């Protein structure tokens, strides 16, 4: 355990309020995260004594960089920053990366080092697979990157698709006409689209066919050029469907495939996502990004639940048969 005294001089006169927060709530949060450290603020200097003093100084250094880059720090942002510093990551590099701004001028950013690697892989590659549990931003960030590509005139069209079999339900047994049947399965993709674009703009793109939201079966027989194509919930494809989808890619297109291999609902259990990494590794322009519990951006309890399941899965694998 490191024990020392370190002093940080905060540049300028504007940053200290953003570092300590209203009524010193951010300062108290840092102290709560490092109970062995005593933190004293006097003027533009922060003095840290005791256990983990150097780690606490790095937290404040990163906070200064985030504030200098225009990021407001709230309790959730600080919690993520502390977790990243403990993992020897740089929150100022991750949390200030902006993908785009929504219609309400809200920035869309990666919220973990894993999410930043994912965004970079999508930007640099042709086909990107994102594998990880729910809540890691796989679909959300893919839609954001698709909209950014369209705004930059890198693609002419966005295609959002999902397989129709989920949670043991078959579309043929659902009531209503085709669109009424498929709508519940595609709704999460619509939600992400309408969260990032104003409703009128999103509807206009849908009406013009510049954004298409359709079940995976509609991809058969097509070649998609100059398109940004997202296959969501890919663990529920069959191997045959996955091959069909990947061979739809045309010139000037980019593809993102997202899935959670622990949530396979294919009737015979044979997921088109399983075994792909070993088969496709080494293909130029194609990459796999693994996301985990540390990339979950929902309530903290979701991260704890994912970690508990991971531990249970690990024990079941290690247990002799």
TrEMBL record:
<keyword id="KW-0963">Cytoplasm</keyword>
<keyword id="KW-0547">Nucleotide-binding</keyword>
<feature type="domain" description="PhoH-like protein">
    <location>
        <begin position="108"/>
        <end position="310"/>
    </location>
</feature>
<comment type="similarity">
    <text>Belongs to the PhoH family.</text>
</comment>
<dbReference type="InterPro" id="IPR051451">
    <property type="entry name" value="PhoH2-like"/>
</dbReference>
<protein>
    <recommendedName>
        <fullName>PhoH-like protein</fullName>
    </recommendedName>
</protein>
<dbReference type="InterPro" id="IPR003714">
    <property type="entry name" value="PhoH"/>
</dbReference>
<keyword id="KW-0067">ATP-binding</keyword>
<dbReference type="InterPro" id="IPR027417">
    <property type="entry name" value="P-loop_NTPase"/>
</dbReference>
<dbReference type="GO" id="GO:0005524">
    <property type="term" value="F:ATP binding"/>
</dbReference>
<dbReference type="Pfam" id="PF02562">
    <property type="entry name" value="PhoH"/>
</dbReference>
<dbReference type="GO" id="GO:0005829">
    <property type="term" value="C:cytosol"/>
</dbReference>
């Amino acid at each position: 355990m490191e024990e020392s005294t370190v002093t940080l001089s905060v540049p300028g006169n504007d940053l200290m309020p953003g570092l300590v927060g209203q009524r010193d709530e951010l300062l108290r949060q840092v102290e709560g995260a490092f109970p062995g450290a005593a933190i004293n603020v006097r003027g533009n200097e922060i003095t840290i004594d005791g256990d983990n003093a150097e780690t606490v100084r790095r937290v404040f250094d990163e906070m200064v960089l985030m504030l200098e880059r225009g990021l407001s720090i709230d309790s959730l942002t600080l919690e993520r920053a502390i977790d990243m510093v403990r993992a020897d990551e740089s929150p100022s590099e991750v949390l200030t990366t902006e993908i785009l701004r929504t219609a309400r001028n809200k920035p869309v950013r990666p919220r973990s080092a894993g999410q930043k690697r994912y965004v970079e892989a999508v930007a640099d590659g042709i086909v990107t697979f994102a594998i990880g549990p729910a809540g890691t931003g796989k679909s959300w960030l893919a839609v954001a990157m698709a909209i950014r590509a369209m705004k930059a005139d890198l693609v002419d069209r966005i295609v959002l698709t999902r397989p129709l079999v989920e949670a043991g339900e078959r579309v043929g047994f659902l009531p209503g006409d085709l669109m009424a049947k498929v709508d519940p399965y595609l709704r999460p993709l619509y939600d992400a689209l309408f969260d990032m674009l104003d409703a009128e703009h999103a509807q206009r793109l849908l009406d013009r066919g510049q954004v298409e939201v359709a079940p995976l079966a509609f991809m058969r027989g097509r070649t998609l050029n100059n398109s940004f194509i997202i296959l969501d919930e890919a663990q529920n494809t069959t191997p045959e469907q996955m091959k069909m989808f990947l061979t739809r890619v045309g010139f000037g297109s980019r593809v993102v495939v997202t899935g959670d291999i622990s949530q396979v609902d294919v009737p015979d259990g044979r997921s088109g996502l399983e075994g792909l990494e070993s088969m496709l590794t080494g293909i130029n322009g194609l990459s796999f990004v693994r996301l985990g519990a540390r990339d979950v951006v929902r309530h903290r309890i979701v991260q704890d639940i994912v970690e508990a399941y991971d531990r249970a899965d690990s024990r079941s694998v290690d247990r002799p048969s």
